[in-house]
């Protein structure tokens, strides 16, 4: 990155209120006052409990030569100081400006669940031809997305950008910044329903990705989703994917082979067999989305196949591992919603194991007033799907327990805390058990995995 100060001022609609000592192009844009950089621009963000402006005085020693500010005063005369109305919006504006320095295809991905695994799959498939830049970790919000864009460089030939949200207008702003050529919506479920009021509200929020989609771009939709299937004619190209044969891209004959999933895929161009290193029917959906994106961007069948072979599940997302004590863990602890809970439970049900199939399920956050009903629904599904035992752990998980107990199915047990369950787990688990761990990120269920390793 090398950005001229005057170009930055123009991009953010700012005003220079102080010329700095060092007249060099900006090489790094940071929101972290602790980072050591070279010729950096500091963007001080302001939140309910923090104000980055308080740290402007310390960033020069960290290699920063310019700063944005929402204040009228100059805090450090050594820094180029650029006044803007809103530093958070300026960060997005800068991200958009920097993105437009590249002509490579950008793919934007959103959805209630499956954003990250679809992002990983799309990036893997495109890597069959190109050097691909992608969102790292959970850098999918109004801060993380522009920081992701700033990491693009001349070596990158495509970018896959994840977009998350929990309120209206967030995807709108993210899409405008990223300006994708292809937009993917994985599904519309119940994640963040607390803030968006209804699934119809979630659909409206997800469709904001169209606001930044480039003219003539492609919208890729999960055609099996009840709400996405209602999306009508648009001033963009549109394709659908799913298991229903009415979709443009669909899969049949899905089967499990150990840690692999196989299927027969039909596309508008050809039919092919796929074999992906991932567990579950939902991963076939992600693969279909990736193939649709890749075909639109001109990848050959061989390039797509090469990319599929390179895919590996991200950490804490359907990660399968058998420990030395012969207990197999399905680690899906990164996050949870009702839809992803059901998908994970199906994986557990279908996994070929000699021992018991056990689900350890925890709280799902941001469900609001819908939380009791949605947790009970997950519990009922878990009890009747055909696994051997269900453990519900956490405050809201009591409703998972209640939902399961209303069904005649798997024995179900409730523990209000992880600590209480770990004590029981270390006595109850045995060799050849397969155990699914899943809950919202804030439950930190990954902490229980080390306890599983210690089971004798």
Automatic annotation (TrEMBL):
<dbReference type="InterPro" id="IPR004101">
    <property type="entry name" value="Mur_ligase_C"/>
</dbReference>
<keyword id="KW-0573">Peptidoglycan synthesis</keyword>
<dbReference type="GO" id="GO:0009252">
    <property type="term" value="P:peptidoglycan biosynthetic process"/>
</dbReference>
<dbReference type="Pfam" id="PF01225">
    <property type="entry name" value="Mur_ligase"/>
</dbReference>
<dbReference type="GO" id="GO:0008766">
    <property type="term" value="F:UDP-N-acetylmuramoylalanyl-D-glutamyl-2,6-diaminopimelate-D-alanyl-D-alanine ligase activity"/>
</dbReference>
<feature type="domain" description="Mur ligase central">
    <location>
        <begin position="109"/>
        <end position="294"/>
    </location>
</feature>
<dbReference type="Pfam" id="PF08245">
    <property type="entry name" value="Mur_ligase_M"/>
</dbReference>
<dbReference type="InterPro" id="IPR013221">
    <property type="entry name" value="Mur_ligase_cen"/>
</dbReference>
<dbReference type="GO" id="GO:0008360">
    <property type="term" value="P:regulation of cell shape"/>
</dbReference>
<keyword id="KW-0963">Cytoplasm</keyword>
<dbReference type="InterPro" id="IPR005863">
    <property type="entry name" value="UDP-N-AcMur_synth"/>
</dbReference>
<dbReference type="InterPro" id="IPR000713">
    <property type="entry name" value="Mur_ligase_N"/>
</dbReference>
<keyword id="KW-0133">Cell shape</keyword>
<feature type="binding site">
    <location>
        <begin position="111"/>
        <end position="117"/>
    </location>
    <ligand>
        <name>ATP</name>
    </ligand>
</feature>
<keyword id="KW-0436">Ligase</keyword>
<dbReference type="GO" id="GO:0005737">
    <property type="term" value="C:cytoplasm"/>
</dbReference>
<feature type="domain" description="Mur ligase C-terminal">
    <location>
        <begin position="317"/>
        <end position="441"/>
    </location>
</feature>
<feature type="domain" description="Mur ligase N-terminal catalytic">
    <location>
        <begin position="26"/>
        <end position="78"/>
    </location>
</feature>
<dbReference type="InterPro" id="IPR035911">
    <property type="entry name" value="MurE/MurF_N"/>
</dbReference>
<keyword id="KW-0132">Cell division</keyword>
<keyword id="KW-0547">Nucleotide-binding</keyword>
<comment type="similarity">
    <text>Belongs to the MurCDEF family. MurF subfamily.</text>
</comment>
<dbReference type="GO" id="GO:0051301">
    <property type="term" value="P:cell division"/>
</dbReference>
<comment type="function">
    <text>Involved in cell wall formation. Catalyzes the final step in the synthesis of UDP-N-acetylmuramoyl-pentapeptide, the precursor of murein.</text>
</comment>
<protein>
    <recommendedName>
        <fullName>UDP-N-acetylmuramoyl-tripeptide--D-alanyl-D-alanine ligase</fullName>
        <ecNumber>6.3.2.10</ecNumber>
    </recommendedName>
</protein>
<keyword id="KW-0067">ATP-binding</keyword>
<keyword id="KW-0961">Cell wall biogenesis/degradation</keyword>
<dbReference type="InterPro" id="IPR036615">
    <property type="entry name" value="Mur_ligase_C_dom_sf"/>
</dbReference>
<keyword id="KW-0131">Cell cycle</keyword>
<dbReference type="GO" id="GO:0005524">
    <property type="term" value="F:ATP binding"/>
</dbReference>
<dbReference type="InterPro" id="IPR036565">
    <property type="entry name" value="Mur-like_cat_sf"/>
</dbReference>
<dbReference type="GO" id="GO:0047480">
    <property type="term" value="F:UDP-N-acetylmuramoyl-tripeptide-D-alanyl-D-alanine ligase activity"/>
</dbReference>
<dbReference type="GO" id="GO:0071555">
    <property type="term" value="P:cell wall organization"/>
</dbReference>
<dbReference type="Pfam" id="PF02875">
    <property type="entry name" value="Mur_ligase_C"/>
</dbReference>
<comment type="pathway">
    <text>Cell wall biogenesis; peptidoglycan biosynthesis.</text>
</comment>
<dbReference type="InterPro" id="IPR051046">
    <property type="entry name" value="MurCDEF_CellWall_CoF430Synth"/>
</dbReference>
């Amino acid at each position: 990155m090398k950005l001229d100060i005057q170009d930055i001022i123009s991009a953010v609609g700012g005003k220079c209120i102080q010329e700095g000592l060092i007249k060099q192009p900006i090489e790094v844009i940071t929101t972290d006052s602790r980072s050591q950089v070279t010729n950096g621009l500091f963007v001080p963000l302001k939140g309910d409990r923090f104000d980055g402006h308080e740290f402007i005085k310390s960033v020069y020693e960290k290699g920063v030569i310019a700063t944005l500010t929402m204040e009228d005063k100059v805090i450090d005369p050594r820094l180029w100081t650029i006044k803007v109305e809103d530093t958070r919006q300026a960060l997005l504006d800068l991200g958009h400006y920097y993105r437009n320095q590249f002509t490579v295809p950008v793919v934007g991905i959103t959805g209630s669940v499956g954003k990250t695994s679809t992002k990983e799959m799309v990036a893997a498939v495109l890597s069959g031809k190109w050097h691909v830049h992608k969102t790292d970790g959970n850098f999918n919000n109004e801060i993380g997305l522009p920081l992701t864009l700033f990491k693009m460089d001349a070596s990158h030939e495509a970018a896959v950008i994840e977009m998350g949200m929990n309120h209206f207008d967030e995807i709108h702003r993210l899409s405008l910044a990223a300006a994708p050529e292809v937009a993917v919506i994985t599904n519309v479920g119940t994640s963040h329903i607390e803030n968006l009021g209804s699934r119809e509200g979630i659909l409206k929020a997800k469709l904001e990705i169209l606001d930044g989609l480039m003219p003539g771009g492609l919208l890729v939709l999960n055609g099996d989703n009840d709400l996405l299937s209602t999306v009508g004619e648009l001033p963009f190209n549109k394709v659908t994917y799913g298991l229903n044969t009415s979709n443009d891209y669909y899969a049949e004959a899905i089967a499990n082979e150990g840690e692999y999933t196989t299927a027969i895929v039909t596309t508008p161009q050809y039919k092919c067999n796929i074999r992906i290193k991932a567990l579950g029917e939902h991963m076939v959906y992600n693969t279909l989305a990736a193939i649709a994106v890749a075909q639109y961007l001109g990848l050959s069948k061989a390039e797509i196949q090469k990319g599929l072979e390179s895919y590996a599940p991200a950490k804490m997302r359907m990660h399968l591992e058998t420990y030395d004590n012969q207990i197999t863990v399905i680690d899906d602890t990164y996050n949870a919603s009702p839809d992803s809970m059901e998908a994970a439970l199906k994986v557990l049900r279908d996994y070929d194991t000699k021992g018991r199939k056990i689900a350890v399920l925890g709280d799902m956050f941001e469900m609001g007033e819908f939380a009791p009903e949605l947790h009970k629904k997950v519990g009922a599904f878990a009890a009747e799907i055909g696994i051997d035992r269900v453990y519900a752990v956490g405050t809201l998980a009591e409703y998972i327990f209640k939902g399961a107990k209303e069904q005649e199915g798997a024995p179900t047990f409730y523990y209000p805390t992880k600590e209480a369950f770990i004590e029981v787990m270390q006595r109850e688990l045995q060799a050849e058990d397969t155990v699914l761990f899943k809950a919202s990120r804030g439950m930190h269920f990954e902490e229980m995995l080390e306890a599983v390793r210690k089971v004798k």
